[in-house]
Amino acid sequence: MAERELEQAKKHGVTLRARGYIHVTGVTDVESFDDRAVQLRTDCGDMTLEGEELHVTVLDTEKGTVELSGRINALYYQDGAPKKRGARGFFG
Description:
It is built from 1 helix and 6 strands.
């Protein structure tokens, strides 16, 4: 991992407790949110949180932190890197 990427990764962190609370650091932007999905831009790529009855309880843009409560069903990242032409998924 390049030194710059390692430094960015140190800023980003996720703490998940019992699928009912999540604390995310290293957030640079909140793209969208509703009670079923929250899309964040982080130091390590775009992050999507999916769940039920999600509520943003803390949004601190200066510190780059977000806290959510509700039932968290999924968390995933998207690098935003373009896919290789002709690349297929597992079943493709």
